[in-house]
Design goal:
single chain; 158 residues; 37% strand; Nuclear Transport Factor 2, Chain: A; alpha+beta; 6-stranded mixed β-sheet
């Protein structure tokens, strides 16, 4: 009887202890995607500041669309490249992206980013000019797990 009681007691303690333990909270893959997009977006801004056209283009899908102010839509990577060539040929600039919000679809393969930015340019005489604007970017998850822009749009404030 003592032996049976002891075994029952051990089983009871194990069940109670197991029932009280907390399983780790499930990881929300959308939070990981949000962090990856924020990081990639920062890298993209640094590539534009560096005027590294090839690096800038590496953040776009092959069928990307760029909607730039006062310009027709640039559809496809070749057209997006031509649009960026013009911008990157301009005076040196610094891009500060303000707070952005990244919303990742429940499917985890599509997201959009929205926010604001400031571009500060410096002319040949050293005079700086700042312009502000808003952005909306659509990101697609690639087969290798990276994120690339499928649609990039920005609107300059007046």
């Amino acid at each position: 009887m003592v032996r049976r009681f002891s075994l029952s007691f051990v089983i009871f303690v194990c069940v109670v202890a197991g029932g009280c333990s907390q399983a780790p909270a499930p990881v929300d893959p959308r939070k990981a995607a949000e962090a990856a997009i924020n990081s990639t977006s920062d890298e993209f801004a640094r590539a534009t500041e560096a005027k590294d056209l090839d690096k800038v283009m590496s953040y776009y899908t092959d069928d990307a669309v760029l909607f730039a102010p006062s310009s027709p839509a640039a559809v496809g990577k070749d057209a997006v490249r031509k649009a960026w060539q013009g911008f990157l040929a301009g005076p040196p600039s610094k891009i500060d992206v303000g707070e952005t919000i990244v919303d990742v679809a429940a499917s985890g393969d599509l997201a959009f980013e929205r926010g604001s930015f400031t571009i500060t340019t410096t002319d040949a005489k050293g005079k700086t000019t700042a312009a502000t604007g808003k952005l909306v970017d659509v990101w697609k998850k690639q087969a290798d797990g990276s994120w690339k822009m499928a649609a990039d749009t920005n609107l300059m404030d007046k």
